[in-house]
Amino acid sequence: MKPESATGGCHCGAVRFVARFPSRFVAHCHCESCRRAHSAAFVTWAGFPSAQVEVTEGRDVLMVHESSQGTSRMFCGECGTKLFFSSERWPGETHVPLAAFEGPVDRVPQGHAFWDEHAAWLPPLAAPPG
Ligand SMILES: [Zn+2]
Ligand SMILES: [Zn+2]
Predict the structure, then answer these.
(1) 96 C-alpha to ligand 2 centroid (Å)
(2) Residue 97 Cα to ligand 1 middle (Å)
(3) What is the CATH number of the domain that holds 95?
(4) Beta strand pairing status for 5-9 and 16-20?
(5) Is 83 within a domain?
(6) Structural domain that includes position 88
(7) Is the pLDDT of residue 102 over 70?
(8) Rounded mean pLDDT, 108-128
(9) What is the CA(30)–ligand 2 centre distance, in A?
(10) Which of these, 1, 3, 87, lies nearest to 37 by C-alpha position?
(11) Is residue 97 part of a domain?
């Protein structure tokens, strides 16, 4: 039987979540906002209908950074790990970094978003955007 969900959490373990499949997408986001918010070359997101993502531990330590108007990035107040993205641009969706999961989700990354904003210093990709 295929798994019906995947669990994950922040670096320190205070925040734990479960995301139920099916996901809507998994994609690498190269937008400047994600890169800066996560201090990363890019962020690989798994998108879910919000009702399918449940915080199972540490709800009280979650904090919110509004990275632009209508866009919220939730993070662990103990260790700072960014966990949940939601935006009026994608109503009803919660995006979760694939790296926050312990195991695989129901699909592999499908592509690259905002490639035109990618970091100039990004090394060549094994599978460049097609
Ligand atoms: Zn934490
Ligand atoms: Zn982004």
Answers:
(1) 12
(2) 14
(3) 2.170.150.70
(4) antiparallel
(5) yes
(6) 5-115
(7) yes
(8) 91
(9) 6
(10) 87
(11) yes
Residue 130, pLDDT above cutoff 80: no
Is the pLDDT assigned to residue 105 strictly greater than 90?
yes
Q: Looking at residue 2, what is its pLDDT?
A: 85
Q: Quote the ligand 1 centre to 10 CA distance (angstroms).
A: 4
Domain count, the chain: 1
How many C-beta atoms surround the C-beta of residue 124 within 10 A? 5
Give the CA radius of gyration of the chain.
Answer: 14
Residue 106 to residue 2: CA distance in whole angstroms: 9
**Which ligand ends up closest to the CA of 30?**
2
Position 16 in a domain: yes
Q: Considering every ligand atom shown, identify the ligand nearest to the alpha carbon of residue 15 and give its number.
A: 1
CA–centroid distance, residue 32 to ligand 2 (Å):
7
Residue 94 tokens, joined = 């919660």
Report which bound ligand comes closest to the CA of 71.
Answer: 2
Residue 76 lies in a domain: yes
- Alpha carbon of 78 to ligand 1 centroid (Å): 5
pLDDT given at position 129:
72
Tokens matching residue 46: 């798994």
